[in-house]
Structure formats: structure tokens, C-alpha cells
Amino acid sequence: xxxxxxxxxxxxxxxxxxxxLLAAACSSGGNNNNSQGASSTDVTVWTAWGGxxxxxxxxxxxxxxxxxxxxxxxxxxxxxxxxxxxGIAAGTDLPDIAPGPTDPTQxxxxxxxxxxxxxxxxxxxxxxxxxxxxxxxLTTAPGGATxxxxxxxxxxxxxxxxxxxxxKGLLWYNxxxxxxxxxxxxxxxxxxxxxxxxxKNLFCAGFESGAASGWPASDQIDNIIMRQSGDQVYTNWIQxxxxxxxxxxxxxxxxxxxEVSDQTVYGGRNTALSTNFAKxxxxxxxxxxxxxxxxxxxxxxxxxxQDFPSQNLKAGTDFDFFAHPSMGNSQYDGNVNGFYDNFAMxxxxxxxxxxxxxxxxxxxxxxxxxxxxxLGAIKSLNYTDPIFKRAADVAASAKNLLVTAGDFMPSxxxxxxxxxxxxxxxxxxxxxxxxxxLDQVQAASYTAS
Length: 449
Hints:
Elements: H1 10-15, E1 42-47, H2 51-68, E2 71-76, H3 80-90, E3 97-98, H4 104-112, H5 119-123, H6 127-133, H7 136-139, E4 153-154, E5 157-158, E6 161-167, E7 170-174, H8 186-191, E8 201-204, H9 215-228, H10 231-238, H11 247-259, H12 269-274, E9 291-296, H13 301-307, E10 319-322, E11 335-345, H14 350-359, H15 362-371, E12 375-376, H16 386-397, E13 400-402, H17 411-426, H18 431-448
Parallel strand pairs: 1-2, 8-9, 11-13
Antiparallel strand pairs: 3-11, 4-5, 6-11, 6-12, 7-9, 7-10
Helix pairs in contact: 2-15, 9-10, 9-11, 17-18
């Protein structure tokens, strides 16, 4: 199967950040379909970024604002997709730039209504350079297809500008605690004795995230299924073509439960359920160490450093990662789970076009890379942080770059999927009944969508 899509929804972006900051926003004057008479000096941007990522975004914008004399008005909005949908329905003002929706049906609908403007229009003669410089999995539909709503391609045109990315399924550890060799298989991983390294448990986990609790657990099972049963089964499952009671998905759940048993996970199952994802890695750096490994995406390093300022933790010196080990089927070892951030242009104004062009450049994305905490979407960036340099190598060498399953399921299915992982963690004996219930939700939600 050729390289496939990856993406992070605006909801998931918001959940993977620290404290959110809100900056004042101003309207650019409506849902413009052309740039005539529209602002060339102001552009409104909605994003879910907060904390260190919002600061990094402002660092990226600083040269643009200074050189172009355009003011970027940022609003941190955790519910941009729903608010934009309401704005489209009501015919009210939309932000000039914001993330595109995650629901493929919604992508097609918004494009058909003219709410999202083509990236080709925004970039003009810079479009071909953007395509050649960006990871192919983010810009090219598999098999030469003209539609791939998962990466915003409709009718052969692109509606989402890829600006940065992250890699998931990495096993993080404290280098001063775990001094052994990285396991190459999942069985080897489970066989490691944490007491050998004076740690309490093998894994840490934190599945609490407010109304979206369960998404960190879904990341873990996604990485199992895509390597255990393959990319075709995985993508068919996302699209509702593989039942939850199928042998492949049930095996994924059974394997996931090995990571969150009372004997394996720090504090036991209830601690995993009640711990916020941002705090899940804290036991790695306590004395004595509470666990050896935490499975999470590249963004988690900012929380390590934020939660232990006195330790002055350094990437590659104090903490490191190894890629998700093989699940026993070597032909699927090249499947990598990741997500991306995108900008969609909702108002075609001179200022919006200028910002989209700037965000597609190596100079802009290199500032992000220099600030740390993320990978860019451009494949030739330089990373001084050893962690992100290696993560970029993981992304570049992947056979398939696969999206997070729940982010692309219908909303009812996503909610039930996340909840099922909490339920089976709490009560593993409920697995069969949970899977039967998920089949029912799947049948209803995919028919409706």
C-alpha cells in the first residue's frame, strides 16, 4: 500500500497542549470569496495552540509581521470546527485562516459550499515548490486518486496547507534509569523486568483528558493494530469496513490490556484512568522511578521539562525514546502513526494569501524546529534537538504514515471507541460486551455519516 494520510484534528491538537492562552481577535470582514477590497494589513487566525506551542507560533510570525507589515490576530479556539460549521450554516463571519475539519464528509461539504479556498489559489506560483518540499504522505493521495479528504484533497485540489507534524507510538524513558538495549519486539518489551532498573512498574499511562478522556489509550491501541494486522486492515477499520468484533481488532484490544494490567502499569489501572495525559510521564523522573516507559508522541517532551524545571532535563541526555517495537509481523514494521497540523484559508484576502505563502516556506517552519517541541511538514528542515532529529528520521523512513483512528471516525464512533478503552481498562472481563456494543455504534454511525 502506498504512503497514506496522517492528521491531527483541532480537538486532538487542543488536548495535547498545556495551558491555553487567549489573544484578542478581530474580524477581517466576512467570508470573502475573492481578494478585491479585502484587508492587506490584517489577518485573523484561529488555532488550538497554547502555552509553549502558542509562543513558538508567535516566534514564527514575528519575521512575517515585521517584513510584510501585516498584523496577525490570533484566537486560541478549542472548538473551531463546530464554530466554523455554525458560521457556514448561518452565513456569518469566519476566521481568515483556521484548521480544516477532520470529518471527511465535512471536508467535502465545506469545499462544495466554497467555505474553504484551494491552497493552489493561496500559494499561486509557490504551490509546486510546496508540493516538492513537503512530506509526500501529507500532500499526495494514494494511487494517484483525485480525492483524499483525510489530507484535504478534493477534485484534485488541495484545501489544507500542511505546516507541521508529530510522530506517535514512541516509548519514552529516563536515560539515567533505563540503561538497557531498546527491545526490537513487543514480546521483548513485556519481558523487561523493571526491578532490574530499580523502577516500580514497566509502564506509565494517563488516559484522563476531560470530555475527551481515552484518546491517549486509543493512540496505544492504534500503534498495536497497524503493526499487528497491517495498514489495510487498519485503514478499513477507520472507514467502518472492519468490525470491532473482528479477530484483528479484538486481538489489538487484548494486546493493549497487557500494557495496562495492575501488575504492569504504574499505580494500577485506576491510576492510569485518573491521571491526566500531561502528567503521565512524571513518575519517570521521580526517585525511585515509578516506571520505565511511557508511550506517547513527540509533543510530550515539553511536559517533561515543564513539570521538572529544577532538574533542567535535556533531550538525549536525560530522556530519550525508541520507536514502537515490532508486533511480530515484520512486513508491518514500517507503519508509523503520526498527525499533522494544517491551515485552511476561509477568506481569500491579500493578507491571508501572504500568510499562507509564508507558512509554506522552510524559513517559517525552521523557526518551529529551532524552538523545539515539533517537527515541520517540510522534509529538509534541520533539527539541533537530537530527539526531534531522530523523530524526523522515523517519519522519513516510514513505509506508511498512518493517521490516528479515532480522529477520523464519526463523532459518535469516536466517543464510543475512546470510552470502550476506559471501560476495558477498568474491567477487562467486559471486553466482549464492549466490542459488541462498538459494532452496533459502528453500524449506526457510519450509515448516518
